[in-house]
From TrEMBL:
Residues 27-46 have a biased composition (Gly residues). Residues 27-72, 407-427 are annotated as: Disordered. This is Uncharacterized protein. SUPFAM superfamilies: Kelch motif. InterPro entries: Kelch-typ_b-propeller. It comes from Polyangium mundeleinium. Residues 1-17 form the signal peptide. It comes from the Bacteria. The keyword rRNA processing does not apply. Keywords: Signal.
Length: 460
């Protein structure tokens, strides 16, 4: 667990270079572009903080009230496949690069973030070799309509060296600062033909590392990036905001940025973003640490550590007064969720947990499922083992009242899990998914399985 600062920086730089998300630290700053809301869902999102926790004045829509109680997943006929909608409504429509230039926004290691007050999802993603579309999309959960709230960088502004989503953004003169630049910051005449209409980051994976606060989508993974969905502009581009803060808690963190597999549990009651500390895929394992952050100010307020060694992706969720984290154990090529811990949000006390009963298991190296999504329905936690066909129409429901134990590492609290089967749905196999969002005021989960699919929903 002890690593030097130099090693930390090497790993951080290596991962960012591999993903095309590195570059020298720049001043960032959004451009003057207006929002490009072309869909029926409207333009800017709610300007209220996600800390409101209320219904946001949005009554349950017809599609939610019509879902059968205790029924299965239902495809919502009134929705549209995201990829087809985006292909028709992007401006320009063509010129983007990657193996899935548009669909990668959802399918390439990305999870939307939910604005609890405004009842809307925001999508940003792609990156690596998957897709270069760096727009931010809004899905109005009430109307099921998409819109574009931050427009994409037009491919005409891609410098010649930018031939794939993971290419460094390097201009003909050699200028680079980690993001697409405007004429205001490009000073060499050779670069000006590729000046972008507004400053913007390239597309990237997001895992489940986004928050929504004060009308902004905040991406915690890699260099911090903010997208203002009201003005349609980017700010805080390419800044390693968390690394310098982390070394104040522990100098061994080495100012690393948050990396592959980072997950955030956004607390609608407080606005806090509880985020797993994932500083690298190898050698730097602090995955038993959770950051308590204020996403609006990019402040790491606390680092809360558990004692257990963690290998692989953890599931994290807010449940009442606690933040729950679960990590799988692995044997014979199979991962099984067997243990975890909970953090008291007020005192930050850590208590260890052991799961018994019906437990979700999946192939350890599954290309479609890295971990297990979990959501809190007001009384129980619900694991969704979507990568296993036999479990896609079931939830593993965890009773949060301990059956025994003291909450210590030696004697963890024992929680019971029961597999609850729902009627067969025929839902297509989802793309990589890191979480499900339970819309408490409506009593439903709304879910986009993959970019080529319509929306699906289920009532709890």
């Amino acid at each position: 667990m002890k690593h030097s600062m130099g090693i930390g920086m090497v790993f951080a730089a290596a991962l960012l270079a591999a993903c095309g998300e590195g570059g020298d630290a720049g001043t960032g700053g959004g451009g003057a572009a207006s929002s490009s809301a072309t869909g029926g869902g409207g333009g800017g999102g709610s300007s209220s903080s996600s800390a409101s926790g209320g219904s946001g004045g949005v009554p349950a829509p017809g599609w939610a009230t019509e879902l059968p109680a205790d029924g299965g997943w239902t495809e919502l006929a009134g929705s549209e496949p995201f990829e087809a909608w985006a292909a028709e409504n992007l401006a320009p429509k063509t010129g983007y690069v990657g193996s899935g230039p548009i669909g990668a926004v959802r399918d390439a290691y990305c999870n939307p973030v939910f604005d609890h007050a405004g009842k809307a999802f925001y999508l940003f993603g792609g990156g690596h070799s998957d897709g270069s579309v760096n727009a931010v999309f809004k899905l109005d959960a009430a109307t099921l309509k998409y819109s574009i709230v931050v427009p994409p960088t037009p491919p005409s502004a891609y410098p010649p060296a930018y031939t794939a989503p993971n290419s460094p953004i390097v201009y003909p003169s050699g200028a680079t600062n980690g993001f697409f630049q405007t004429a205001a910051t490009l000073t060499d005449a050779a670069d000006l033909p590729y000046a972008a209409p507004f400053a913007a980051p390239q597309s990237s994976h997001t895992y489940s590392a986004m928050s929504f606060a004060n009308g902004k989508v905040i991406l915690h993974y890699g260099p911090v990036r903010d997208a203002d969905v009201g003005s349609g502009t980017w700010s805080y581009l390419d800044k390693d905001t968390y690394g310098p803060q982390l070394v104040k808690f522990n100098p061994n963190y080495g100012e690393v940025v948050l990396q592959a597999g980072t997950r955030t549990a956004n607390d609608p009651a407080t606005g806090k973003a509880w985020t797993t500390l994932v500083p690298g895929d190898a050698g730097l394992n602090w995955r038993n640490c959770v950051l308590e952050m204020d996403p609006a100010t990019h402040t790491v307020e606390n680092v809360v550590s558990a004692k257990w060694e963690v290998l692989g992706d953890s599931s994290i969720v807010i449940g009442g007064p606690y933040v729950y984290v679960f990590t799988p154990t692995k044997s014979g090529g199979t991962a099984t969720t067997t243990r975890g811990w909970r953090i008291d949000k007020a005192t930050r006390a850590v208590e260890q947990l052991k799961l018994t009963g019906d437990l979700p298991s999946w192939p350890e190296f599954s290309p479609k499922q890295e971990g297990i999504p979990v959501f809190y329905d007001g009384s129980k936690l619900n694991f969704w083992n979507y990568g296993v066909d036999a479990d896609r129409d079931a939830f593993f429901r965890v009773d949060l009242e301990p059956k025994s134990g003291a909450g210590t590492e030696e004697d963890p609290y024992v929680l019971s899990s029961t597999r609850e089967t729902r009627p067969p749905s025929g839902m297509p196999s989802p793309a990589l998914t890191y979480e499900l969002t339970y819309i408490a005021e409506w009593g439903v989960v709304l879910f986009l399985p993959k970019a080529s699919a319509k929306l699906w929903a289920i009532k709890l």
